[in-house]
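Format notes (please read before filing issues)

Several people have asked whether sequences and structure tokens are stored in separate files. They are not. Every record keeps both together, in the order shown below: the sequence lines, then the token lines. Line labels are part of the format and must not be stripped during preprocessing.
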Amino acid sequence: MKILLVGGGGREHAIAWAVAKSPKCDKLYAAPGNAGIAELAECVPISVMDAPALVSFAKEKDIDFVIVAPDDPLAAGVADAFLDEGIRTFGPRKNAAIIEASKAFCKDLMKKYDIPSAAYETFDDPDKALAYLDTIEAPYVIKADGLALGKGVLICQTIEEARDGIKEIMIDKKFGDSGNKVVIEEFMTGREVSVLCFSDGKTIIPMTSAQDHKRAGDGDTGLNTGGMGTFSPSPFYTDEVAKFCEENVYQKTIDAMAAEGREFKGVLFCGLMLTDKGPKVLEFNARFGDPETQVVLPRLKNDIVEVFEACADGTLDKIDLQFEDNAAVCVMLASEGYPVSYEKGYEIRGLENFKDKEGYFVFHSGTKFDENGKVVTNGGRVIGVTALGRDLVEARANAYKATELIDFDNKYMRHDIGKAIDEQ
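Then the structure lines:
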């Protein structure tokens, strides 16, 4: 098969690695890809949002199967563009990707179909949103309705912070049109767990669990980022929790989407909060998480192309999804100053240390080749260093040891990714 992967971050590098292993993959293209993906695929300089150019390329190259990985193109209908041309595609249509693209839609869906989540109110008028703050207690959870690169959620400890947050999102338009509407949500406490699920619109199969670290600084301090590291599996995602979520969250959500005429085919990312009143949904995403993918896929036993095809073709019930009985930890190497401002273009040294190093993976998030062919930094999150281990403690030790093998000017990372697992 000739396969086209749309995307160019760490998630896509992990997907490319898994796809390239499949005996079904004869040729892999990536648009636009990055310096790491270039080792596995032929990269083509087409924007993930340029649906006409992507479809034209797919036709020109007789592409058999397309994987649309990032959130923005899914929300914009890029998967639809391929599907409407009869090209088999993994990824939900625009009308299903709305489960991530609109937090208001998502919350209304959960309320309508009795899927456990936090209490909430939605506002498109900043004055009404500000007035509502006076009726509830701190802390306050304020979410921009639309996509905001994983940064559109504010946890405000005081009413002053919350008022500033409303102004930032709705009046100053920090996230553009994504902030035309906000969801103000009940603050929930507990352990966070991420569970990615494959779906063919009828059947849904959860993958192994993971847990992300969003804050920029050690001890979960600083600003929200796209993710500074993650581990899998979560020791807090017990068999009891899994059973509850399978009955009350995963299948109910896929059935709800179908009932709304929004058949969901692809990956449903379920962000969960394990509260003292049981698991509740924090958010849904319409694609693989980043960096959760970087710890989940290295543990997958199946041929991922077969799973992707089953999701696209409606035959997921025939798949026996299996994961290795081990653990993985990913530590993100970022640029100092991320997520606010940072410099790019620094040479990345030490990548050769991972050639044929079993149980270790370097997934490129923000890299490119410079004019001399050297791999340089090209983003806030630069490299995800993933390591396997017999258990989480060993995987964490291996991952941090591996971070010492890569260096670049301006390198920054958290030092406590998965620290809680050392205390289990």
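For reference, the curators noted about this record: DSSP finds 13 helices and 22 strands in the chain. The mean pLDDT is 95.
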